[in-house]
Amino acid sequence: MNRPERVPAHARRLASRMAAIEPFHVVALVTRAKALEAQGRDIVNLVIGEPDFPTPRPIVEAGIEALRASRIGYTPSLGTPVLREALSGWYRARYGIEVPASRICVTSGSSGALLLTMGVLLSPGDEVLTADPSYPANRHFVRAMEGRAVGIPVGADSAYQLTAELVDRHWTPRTAAVMVASPSNPTGTLLSLDEITRIHEVVRRRGGVLIVDEIYHGITYGDRARSALEFTDDVFVINSFSKYFCMTGWRLGWMVAPPDYVDDIEKLAQNLYISNSDIAQQAALAAFSPAVTAELEANRARFRAQRDYLLPALCGLGFEVPVTPEGAFYIYASARRFTRDTYRFCYDLLDQAGVAVAPGIDFGEHRAAEHVRFSYPKPIPVLEEGVRRLREYLGK
Ligand SMILES: Cc1ncc(COP(=O)(O)O)c(C=O)c1O
């Protein structure tokens, strides 16, 4: 009998773009932390970027009711009309602005929104300016759509955010779009509405498009975050049910697009994935009730208390955090007193001390090897235990 032909390793046909897609280290560390937990180790997980709070009960109940009562089917690709209307009402109630439901595109997490945005905006070789550090997946959304992400080094002087001046200085004939996030992941810092307005002016003058990621809106500790939609329709605004609404696993987000892009976004969504989860969309209709808002606002107060505990504790250990994070649930800290290689530091910290934090390398290149990100939405006793282990590990 003939032996089946063995396929040589070199026959693997891997797309050239894959060379530029790096692992998402946060996810890899979470996997390692889970493997250690499965071996019986107790891990303080300060790596994953999701609230520790459950999805509010009324949302869960609405999901259960959807399963019981309806036929779960495909929905329109841009979302159910009733959810798009509800989101329009949310902008009216929260920001006092009119955002027509026709411009609101419901997506699979804000990740889906980012992919669609890059899909409709980028031609091969087009460049997107982002802050370095910023959310790891952004540069890969750009690359997956054949564009090139250009990270602009930012530091404490601009609260780790792009400025209009930086955008103008780094603009090239290939620049198609600029992406900002406020509050930012990994730094938790905000952009003022004035600075977003100035960045928008530069982007328009240069003939590009501005994308503003507002996924951490609702999780701010000083002034309320202002939406770019408060001053213009001419912007892609990205948002999600994942963070403020504590619905990471439901995979539901949305974007607000300039009116003349909506048909193209719909065309792409129809083909890429037909529709978003019907169950999640039905559940999310319960997200805007006064009871849920009260719960989410109580969560926000807890996030704040968690930050107020962890920030001084980390600084006391010798981490440096030059700009106070005013939103999201992250602290981006320099660990240069301890290491110049935070990638190894993070794996060692996890293996030796059972504390999982994210290495700076996930978020870009600029001084990445000296930074780590702490994700702090955890009960304060857990944070205290993390700090205790860190102190011991660092020999303090
Ligand atoms: C800044 C930012 N944008 C987008 C996302 C994607 O989140 P999701 O797809 O769950 O909405 C994240 C997740 O951590 C994020 O931090």
What features would you describe in this structure?
The protein is an alpha/beta fold and 396 residues long. 40% of the residues lie in helices and 13% in strands. The protein has helices spanning 25-38, 57-69, 81-95, 109-121, 136-144, 164-170, 193-205, 262-273, 278-284, 290-317, 342-353, 380-393, and strands at 44-45, 104-107, 127-132, 148-153, 175-181, 209-213, 236-240, 253-256, 330-334, 355-356, 358-359, 371-375. The strands form 3 sheets. It has a 7-stranded mixed sheet with strand order 2-8-7-6-5-3-4, with helices on both faces. Strand 5 (175-181), helix 7 and strand 6 form a beta-alpha-beta unit. Helix 4 packs across helix 5 (136-144), helix 6 packs parallel to helix 7 and helix 10 (290-317) packs parallel to helix 12 (380-393). The chain is globular. It starts with 24 loop residues before the first helix and ends with a helix. The structure holds pyridoxal-5'-phosphate (PLP). Pyridoxal-5'-phosphate is lined by residues 49, 109-111, 135, 181, 185, 213, 215, 240, 242, 248, 253.
Attribute tags:
alpha/beta, seven-stranded mixed β-sheet, three-stranded antiparallel β-sheet, 12 helices, 12 strands, binds pyridoxal-5'-phosphate
Broad shape: globular
Write out the strand line-up for the largest beta sheet, numbering strands in chain order. 2-8-7-6-5-3-4
What is the percentage of strand-forming residues?
5-15%
Please mark out the parts with pLDDT under 50 across 5 or more consecutive residues, or reply none: none
Question: Ions, cofactors, ligands: which are bound?
Answer: pyridoxal-5'-phosphate
Secondary structure: helix percent: 25-40%
Judged by helices, strands and strand pairing, the structural class is alpha/beta
List how many beta strands DSSP finds: 12
Counting copies of identical and different chains, the oligomeric state is single chain
Number of helices: 12
What series of H and E elements makes up the topology?
HEHHEHEHEHEHEEEHHHEHEEEH
